[in-house]
């Protein structure tokens, strides 16, 4: 099968197209014919070697941890899926990723695709959507009337977080650049903040929850907008305990714990028209396609999700 691999750490030029063997299916896995995958920051962070202490894989490595496709084979222990099912998943983080024509996925990480979306739209959801859910629901406990601030509302995690928060009945503020204002507001944003023209810390206060997707000074200033007892979830940088204690809030670094059950909850929102994928870029499964995709992601200015069609 065709796959895009890296054989050593480095820049985007390490992405190489290779013919590799179709992975073997274990008892608790299914083999998925990948129709689409998507790009997430973990892809290029691992490619650069930033995560080698946490994820020490042997080369070659197939990157990519989002998949939408068709079940082609099931392991002996699989009971919930069958050949021909349209599925999507955030597979386990292994060296056998999803920049490939086939990938294996553990049964407990899979969910059936909603019937009302394409493979490309489905592939955009698993990692970013589940991350947003884990931050807002599992950690944040967001509910009706809560005030929520989403940083980088035009990004992959951010644009799902806005929609999830609105579906839960929250009032949502989001930061983004002015060029993204129209569509970010269409997602349900109640208070749009053009970060180039407004300082969120000067115009917001008394918030219940902040989703930090940027880190650094943005994270530190975010404590100022939270009320006492509020919560901050960061997906980029472990929060400083002293800062959280000083402001009387709870702060946590969220590393995704993916699951098919969590993905099914997102599927329900999709079916009910409360969650959709914004795809800013669609590129092919080729060396040049993946290099361009990584370059866009590394710019931190991608609109919504970057999807790869296979």
TrEMBL record:
It holds the Pfam family ADH_N. Coiled coil: none annotated. Residues 10-308 form the Enoyl reductase (ER) domain. It comes from the Bacteria. Keywords: Oxidoreductase. The keyword Oxidoreductase applies. InterPro entries: ADH-like_N (IPR013154), ER (IPR020843), GroES-like_sf (IPR011032), NAD(P)-bd_dom_sf (IPR036291), Quin_OxRdtase/zeta-crystal_CS (IPR002364), YIM1/Zinc_Alcohol_DH_Fams (IPR050700). The keyword Oxidoreductase applies. Gene3D superfamilies: Medium-chain alcohol dehydrogenases, catalytic domain, NAD(P)-binding Rossmann-like Domain. This is NADP-dependent oxidoreductase.
């Amino acid at each position: 099968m065709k796959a895009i691999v890296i054989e050593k750490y480095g820049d985007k030029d390490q992405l190489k197209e290779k013919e590799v063997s179709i992975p073997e299916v274990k008892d608790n896995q299914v083999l998925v014919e990948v129709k689409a995958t998507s790009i997430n920051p973990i892809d290029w962070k691992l490619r650069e070697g930033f995560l080698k202490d946490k994820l020490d894989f042997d080369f070659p490595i197939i990157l990519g941890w989002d998949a939408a496709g068709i079940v082609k084979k099931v392991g002996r222990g699989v009971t919930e899926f069958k050949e021909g099912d349209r599925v999507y998943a955030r597979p386990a983080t292994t060296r056998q990723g999803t920049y490939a024509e086939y990938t294996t996925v553990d049964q407990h990480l899979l969910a059936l695709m909603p019937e009302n979306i394409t493979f490309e739209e489905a592939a955009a959801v698993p990692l970013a959507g589940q991350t947003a859910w884990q931050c807002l629901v599992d950690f944040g406990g967001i509910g009706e009337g809560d005030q929520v601030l989403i940083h980088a509302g035009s990004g992959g995690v951010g644009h799902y977080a806005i929609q999830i928060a609105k579906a839960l009945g929250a009032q949502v503020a989001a930061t983004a650049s002015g060029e993204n204002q129209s569509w970010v507001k269409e997602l349900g944003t109640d208070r749009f903040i053009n970060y180039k023209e407004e300082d969120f810390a000067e115009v917001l206060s008394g918030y219940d929850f902040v989703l930090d997707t940027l880190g650094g000074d943005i994270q530190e200033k975010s404590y100022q907008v939270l009320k006492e007892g509020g919560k901050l979830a960061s997906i980029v940088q472990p929060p400083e305990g002293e800062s959280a204690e000083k402001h009387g809030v709870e702060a946590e670094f969220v590393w995704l714990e993916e699951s098919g059950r969590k993905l099914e909850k997102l599927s329900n929102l999709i079916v009910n028209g409360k969650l959709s994928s914004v795809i800013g870029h669609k590129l092919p499964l080729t060396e040049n396609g993946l290099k361009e995709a990584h370059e866009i992601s590394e710019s931190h200015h991608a609109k919504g999700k970057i999807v790869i069609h296979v």
